[in-house]
User: Fold these one by one.
Assistant:
Number 1:
Amino acid sequence: MKQKILEVINNTLTDADIKYADVIPWSTPIYSFGNISNSKIATLGINPSNREFEDLNGVELNGNNRRFHTLKSLKINSWTEIDSAKTNYIKTLCDEYFSRNPYDQWFKKLDYLISGSSYSYYFPSTEACHLDLIPYATSKKWSDLRPNQKHFLLDKSSLLLGHLLKNSSINYLILNGSTVIKTFEQISDVTFRKELQTDWVLNRKNGKNVNGYSFEGDVNKIGGIKLKQAIKVFGFNHNIQSSFGVTSIVQKSIRNWLSNKIKV
Amino acid sequence: MRIKDKALYNDLDKKLTEFIKIHSMPGISDSSDKECLIHQIIDSDRRIKIAQIFKSKSYSSIVCDPSKTTFNPLKAACYHFQNGDIDEAFWLVFLAIHYGKHREHGWNLVRFTYNGLGTSIVWDWQTISNDPTLFRSWLRRNHQNLKQKGTFSNHRKYVSIKDKGTGATFESYVNWIGPGKSHEKFIQDLIDTVGSDPKILFNKLYNSMSSVKYFGRLGKFDYLTMIGKLGIVNIEPDSTYLNESTGPYEGAKKLFNDTSKRSLNFKLNALEAHLGLNFGMQIIEDSICNWQKSPSNYIHFRG
């Protein structure tokens, strides 16, 4: 695993790539939120928020507020200076993310959805982690990146995700929202069974209700990397953090659906 | 003290002891002051949890009927949100925060405004947003009658019930939501612009809400935190907004023996991160404000 991180830092993005793709140049790639080696289940998002590295004013998080390493915290000027010891530091902060200063406003909602399975990101379980399709935080929101930037980042990152999952004990992937589902389909061999879930409909007084769909499938190959065994993939079209009007009743129903699907 | 509170008390005690090693807190160097602050934090945390319980419950439409004494604007907001009437949910939270819940008169001012003092007019979102000047005319004629029905809560005690106060506030609120009159579109447009980070969204909404007249720091802060706590939008305060405050600023000064707002903001942010409480910024804002009123002798305040 450590070797893989070192490879991704050294070989995936050059300085020119970082600039081209609007990646925050001083941020480390986040290969995992929480310890993937312990995990049986992983939630999947698009890419890390800039808030993992900086505060609302764009100032780098420091001291007790720091979540991940940066060039500054590693006391280096360029990623070419990364060595084995520094890779260990990066790995430690990724592994210990949920026991330090996790971004709870974001993760607690996802943790609730998987909590019916008894897995959790948090102590004492720590058998869940969060992965992103793209391990790099970008200075613009994902939706604001140009299509060629998105394609470029996805192309560079899918190999890492494939390797990570191949070398892990993860049995279940949980996809949060339709953008993640569509993007995951592009980089893997998954074929989803899509089903309307009447309990997940977001009602609107004006009659323009937002339907809720579940997605279910198996994945054997990601980014061209063949996994050792198939991983069960479950998803829902509502992005639990940013879809507007996802009531607690809908969230509870998604939680129940997942707990019925996941066998501990 | 309840067993659950005892566990939280011990946890807060331990965390404050750890925090003092990083940032000195002369205001709680005396054990009775520290004990008092912890009790205030527990009270504030409990108030947050009560609001969050509302969102997980299913209510019957009886809570929405302003002709009944069972009317409760926050429960009604949850009812409407769960049933897809997003606008009414927001509007009821706004009414609830504008008037507040008075210790004696409860939600009476919200209730009697909403039901037009028991006439055939219900000042729901659709009615008021169609023409807020109609409401202002009604208020000019009726503010004396309304005044007899209830009182603003402590947080809103300086607000005027007259048209030039409440009327102007309501009209500017409608204008803040904009010509589309749709809260859903208003929030979604903002999410599309700035993303869905709960703290960034809170900050942007807080700043843009300055266009709502006579709805100052506390009004904005209480309204937006309530929207977050009820799960209507995934937002959470990013700061105590100390710069514009009185009570919380006094509390922070006393706690850290420091007068610099910049420095105090930094220390409060660090404290919030260290305590790790849900809606931590509101808990800190509320608890230090109450604590400074009586730092050594615990008094139970009711919000």
Number 2:
Amino acid sequence: MSDDKQSPSRRRLIKSLVFVPMGVGAAGALHGGLQTAGAAATAAPEGKPNPYTPTFFNADEWRFLNAAVDRLIPHDEHGPGAIELGVPEFIDRHMKTPYAHGSIWYMSGPWLDAPPEFGYQGKLPLCDILRVGMKNFDNHCAQQFNGKKFADLDKGQQEAMLKEAEGNKLKFPDISGKIFFANLLAETRNGYFADPGHGGNKGMGSWKMIGYPGMRADYLDWVEVRDRAYPIPPVDLAGNRG
Amino acid sequence: MAIVKTKVDAVIVGAGWTGAILAKELTDHGLNVVCLERGPDRDTQPDFAYPRVVDELEGSVHRRYLQALAQETVTIRHGVNDTAVPYRQMGSFKPGTGVGGAGSHWSGAHFRPLPEDFLLRSNMEQRFGKKLLPENMSIQDFPITYDELEPSLDHFEYVCGTSGKAGVINGQVQEGGNPFEGSRKREYPLPPNPNYLGSEWFYKAAKEMGYHAYPIPASNASRAYINPYGCQMGPCNACGFCSDYGCLNYSKASPNANVWPVVRGRKNFEMRTHAQVLKVNLADDKKTATGVTYLDAQGRETEQPADLVLLCAFSLYNVHLMLVSGIGTPYDPVTKTGTIGKNYSYQNLNRVVMYFDETVQANPFIGIGGAGATFDDLNGKQNDPTKSGFVGGGIVWARQPGAGPVRGIPTPPGVPNWGSAWKKSVKEVFRHQFYYEVQGSCMSYDDAYLSLDPTYKDAFGRPLLRMTFDWHDNEIKASQFLVGKAQEMCKVLNPLAMKGDAKKDGQHYDVTQYQSTHTCGGAIMGKDPKTSALNKYLQSWDVSNVFAPGANAFPQNNGYNPTGLVGGLAYWCAKAIREQYLSNPGPLVQA
């Protein structure tokens, strides 16, 4: 953490974080075979239950989502993970927006295959890309791993499967594994980095980790400063200070 | 039955830069003007007010201030024998909508073209012979010269409060400006903005390479300013939310802040928002427009009769309206006849990212949209195609419009896209990286054009505009040459790592990656009605009471951002309407 000395906000973050060994926190709960979505599925790192109950995703999808975002942005020595920052909550809430239902995408047919440089040409809006993709992914895992779904796999297996999806090596019947992965990763990053008002990035944890001042939007006095790191911790859209 | 409105002197389609300029100039002259804007009304207050405007998820993911593609979009294909598919999600280019149009969410980079940019074909043929140009390259001269347009370019800069440093005033080279620029009559209205670290270092690297760096002319006010219309601007506070966002601070020039305030409320002006224009109505002989048909905010088909129809939509949609209305003859790439849709061109943008250690405080979250540094040593007539291997030119620039993590954190080569290694990298690099971009010209070609799609329709039942475009060898060579030069320059700064993206041989146009919103051509201005849609006053050769100022008029795209030229052309067009057309309506140039 070479730049800790320059960032008071980061020093505070590091001191305040309770590091939980991997597999004991969120991932451990997921491996416990919970079948219902909700509270216990996403234990926060301090051990407090996450009170969020999904309203878009069903229980299987919620398990998949929690397991997947925990692999995409894990909790580690570099900073908070997607689970503790509430990324699943962000995604669940985001799926109910007009955006996720394709409000700004052109969604009329005919639907033709085209090379990837022409962009997504399928008929599913974002919310269904994720939902259909999760089901296909889980079914694929079940075939490959004796009935185990993605969330039931160990972390190494999960990572290997996600890498295969990213590299377009998983063939699903209803959707491109690569397109599903790209959208899942984009949503995970959105939830990790967007303003906490959207449900993720709890406590501005990702902003503090990277040294982003958030929504200050006023830097005229700092444009020409060269000898010091930007010193002021972040603020969010609601005016909370990190 | 359609509602029929009272006839007006002029109807304007679109409330962006050109619409605002035409509305100002023609209402000044006493004309009754109605502006029809397909999107919502927008103004600094309340639409761009802090803090809501700086929500990255809504601004850059939901694209709240940009056009939604759901109702209207284009289809895209690479070749004339391919089947086009819709541009379903925004990527490569980002048209605006609403009052202000793309002029409210641009960055503010405000260049004038070089004098030689206006005479590109003549210059190339005179200097290098006719054999130099590939046979399918359809570049043409503009029908006007830099000197003719200079007063209009100047006026637009003063309306925008452009911050810069003149390079040549009345033929005299000025220290610190661009020595290669066309001569101007006076200095910019405001001095340059401060340099963030990346642009400060750009000067060092450029000097080492022997390039003549100068401040990018930026319509982001460096000081408090009152423009000739009495509109006030505040100094840019470097908020970092320019591209994709409206300005929270009255600092970035926009139609909303710099023109509309003096036009709104005039008795001879009316703005109608949520008014989707469907077509230009033509008289039976197709030589005169009678007005336009649009859907009003309640979806009712409405006719607005007018003596003048001014197409001030985004360049692509100006061409679309001409095609769906039957103005002129559509271009045919096989016979190379017809003019509407001809000479579509784009922009050749490439980026080199540099990564440094934690002692380098690049702070990419700081942003002043158009500000930074660039040079013209590889642009315009400085580029010798017999040595570089390509026709055209380009600029390398240091520009930092502002970056937040939702907009993406570039990571060094070899870093995975997720997992602990990605997290470690974004944490290490976020504040210690910056990029230089290469923005290159894009030539026009016989097989790059706009037409109506045979299959796909918009929400109003009209055929979508179809774009046929791919990179040609000339632009790929330009990308490789210019990115190579940029990389040499970057190496001088000794970064820990570098990532560049010159186009590869045979690489196809990729619509998923943002490149530039500088789509040009399709209804170009020229000297000959056989090879251009508009005459030198941006007037349709075919329907003389229709004018179409905008980047659609560029016969090809030069190395710069188009907005300075677009604004200049709008003032030029307005002057011709006021001083020539109104007293004697009809063609201003005899074919």
Number 3:
Amino acid sequence: MTDATSQIREIARNLLSEGRVQTVLGYEEAPLGLGLRPAFVREPSGTGRLVFDARPTLGLARYLPGEIASALARAEDGAAGSGGTTRGATVAVVAKGCDVRAVLRLVADRRIRRENVILIGVPCSGSIDEERFPRLIAKCSGCDARLPEGCDFTIETMAEPRPADRHRPLKVEDLEGMTADERYTFWQRQFARCIRCFACRSVCPACGCRECALESRSPVWLERDVNPSTQSMFHFMRLMHTAGRCVDCGECERVCPVGIPLTLLTRKLMSDIRTLFGVEHPETPGDSEPLARFGLSDPEEFI
Amino acid sequence: MPWNPLIVAFCCNWCSYAGADLAGTSRLAYPATVRIIRVPCSGRVNPQYIVRAFQRGADAVLVAGCHPGDCHYSTGNYFTRRRFLLARTFLEYLGVEPERFQVRWISGSEGPKFQETIKEITQAVRALGPNRKLRDES
């Protein structure tokens, strides 16, 4: 039993030297002590760079479609040159529970194939932002931090004592308890900070359209001028487009540079899907999405 | 000039639009507060249309389609039901009064129901007053 870093290094070294994968996607130390950054390791000799700990990391799922495509292309070139061929999995990825769900989302959306990925699951008791204060980062509040399921490898770690949850001033229920006007004021204040950097969209595993409606110029759904109305349209669209396909990874909130509490929106949709449509685990990607099917006895008191 | 509500109604071609037509040919009077947009099916209505209507000054939005089981395309309105149940709770969560967004099943033979629906929504919106939420003032 060794720590997560050495186990990940060993698995990565074996996978690369046996030629089972083209790339291991993991994390390495960023320069200047800036935490962990994504690492693309393609040689066994490079596996010593890999690191993993409780510092917040970027979920790596969104790198997979591109990385797998180029790995497959490389494998094909190699096969043409040497007569050897690389089959099956082409990219291994280090994934926490939320990241595993994100990868399965891409698989369910047919953006990648499960057999092209080797999942190295890391049990996680929440990311901690030592920089600011030794507490869980917001997106990890309320996560039951379970062992990732359905992985090809699972890292064994000592059960870490779970750090204190970050104090979140508000939960979905608190907002539900407000009046319509209070809620409106609250959300307008949040959306007013939005700089439309689209990071929430770029990091989201459920956002996969080749042409994004947010950037459509015919028709124009999202006006270029920034005002309370267009800001609301932006967030409404993004959330309705990912509703029922969101895996509750919380990356949108983590990357938001202005700290909009986006999981208060994603989790609201998720709890409504759970109660209204009887979907037990809307965060787990399945073959059929809640909004892509229907029940003959769906509630219609509102109609 | 007294203030009159503005209702944008997305009516399915096969049922509710015919229902509205029947209300007209039957000479059923209802408030002139509604602007009807004909859609091929209530399932064609994108949630963005609702916000866009509010942006452009609607005080209420109605999505009207065939009764469950009567959809011209068999199942379109079942998707509508699920989608707008969620969109409705979500709009409410963003702070829009739920009365301002309505979904109704109105068949081609229900002229009186169309009349009643418009009366009812007009009354509810009159009580709420003009909508400023989500409106594009620029």
Number 4:
Amino acid sequence: MKERNGKKSVHEAMGMEVSRRDFLRTTAVGAAGFAVGSLPFVPFTYGASTPIRIGMIQENTVGATAYGYWLTKVARASVAKLNAEGGISGRKVELVEYDTKVNPAWASSMFKKLILEDKVDFTMGSVHSGVQMAVFPLAEQYKMPYIGGGAMAAGLTGKDAIAYYSRIHTHARMQAAAGWKWGFDNLGKNWTFLVADYAWGHSLAEEFGSRIKAAGGKTQTILAPQNASDFVPFLQKVDPESKVLFTAFLGAPALGVMRQTVELGLHKRLQRYTVICCTDGVGQETVGKESAGAHYLSYYPRYSSQVPKELQAYDKAYRKAIGMTDDAKDASDPKNTATVSHMWTMWTTPYMIKLAVEKSGWKDSKKNADFMKAFNTLKVKAGPWAPQGDLVMRENDHQGFHDHYLEEVQPNLSLKVIARVPKEKLMYDAPVDLRAKL
Amino acid sequence: MASNLAVAVLNGIVWGLIMALIALGLNLIFGLLHIINMAHGALYMLGAVFSWYVIELTGNYWLALIVAPLGVGLVGLALERGLLRTIEDQPLVTIICTFGIMLVLQQLVLTYFGGTARRIALPIPGRFRLFDLQYPVMRIVIAAISAAVMGGLWIFLNRTRYGLWMRAVVQDREMAVALGIPVDQVYMWTFILGSVLAAFSGVLAAPIVSVDFMMGREILIMAFIIVIVGGMGNLWGSVVTAVMISLIHGVGSIFVVPSTATVFSLGFMILVLLVRPQGLFGE
């Protein structure tokens, strides 16, 4: 090294001479060591196999966003856990996500993108029955396994069912099977259904109503637009002899109908009953004191204290993994209430995909039919992957069965479980047989 | 039957007066600025959302009724100065621009307020008997406030210098400029006033309905129907039409399914446009 302006270089001062070759060798070895050292530990063999890709469609903007937020959060946590435990058949799992915008046409284009561009192996998601129905033709055309994520129209695994679709959770017919008798015996025999004027609302009114009428009760059905904000014109048509008011709306109208029922004083002569879908993801403090005394049919107790004892350990681990508190709030945002009754589906679905892949020996899309057969014969025991309890799939209609709960809003606005309905009590006859179609 | 009719008429008037406030703001902006403000529903929603925050902080609905519209007025000021002024006299561009503003406001509220609907407690609980049915007192109060605000607006437009300037600009903009009226200022204050009226309606409706980021969407459609039927640019035509359409829907709901009664309102609009394309009170 030459002396510059009479000053010695650092290396000369320290008695070191470094050639260009030494420098390159040292930095190359150092960089390689740093790169290797900084790699995260993953239980996969690099280059051994391609990842398994699960495509997911969810309602993240426009409407049903509380569902989209939580179902996405839970799906990500589930896939992370799956990867931490070795992935599926030793292959890493990747989640590819798109927003449906609650727009069936848009959702279809995103679903097609998942299949053709993102080359996903399996698909799941959406709480919207219309969106799910819109992507059915694509799932059928490309023989793409599609596991639903919260949509409740009975027809999805009934008259509109397709071979490549499965639903692991409840829907209107199962809810009616689970909840009508309790309501009939405990609340009254004369019912008014005030429901949203689309497939889901119709399903609930028909499924509950037909059972009430068959048992000798009386029913009245009032349909209102899903986006209604003033319910007075609808509530004033409630039969004066009705004893039970069953409502079914999502989002803001669900709160509106509940509070306006009280504003008109109807809560004094009517028992109020609904499915938790109406206010899942809405804190009781938000629903307000108007909800005290109302009854909900739910699919997972909102508070950890209300979870059956034998499931509490699984529930605790599940809540921790997804970042949900004991009282169903977002651990990072206490004002954000979880969609507890719906979101467990996105926790269990990736695990059930793993079970079906392993059971069917699935390697690629050539064995999609075998995968579907394996998926629809699964019996998942309560455990870390099934905190909601045992879950049984039915091969005929690709429908899953699980326990339900009846909850009552207490005067302090907490939700108390007053009855548990075992899945065996809500197994209705399969409306279709898809076995020969795979 | 008598009780149903009484509730339908009363409720029709109440909703008509709330809708009239929204439509007035929309019509004011169109009449003077010739802007078809697609963001008007979003400003209504923003009023309700701001009021929710004010009530969370102070617990006072009546304070929110003042503060929230003023806050939305500031948003209106920023929109008028920052965006709409730059695309003045380009109707098509303003439609696209205000539509974009609507989407931006909705998504901002979704991001910070969240997707879950929130509730505002009734500041005046209680109800009174109306034949066999009951009716909430607060709705009557809301109707009275709406009527009072509309009265105030009439006085402002007809008895103040600024109101005179606004009417002058509507009639002949060039002459107004020639007479020394600060047209630029009038435009700005008109947009702010329209925004404040939308927000005020949002705060009034919030305790009845629920507050959520999509609440302005349906209201916007109904507000446009009212403005078109009443006559674009005719403020008081909007008020009469809003009450008429709400009454038609309310009374119609007694005889048919309420969803079908909406067809009556739309049928009324079609009929009016066939007979008087300029609207009931349009010139």
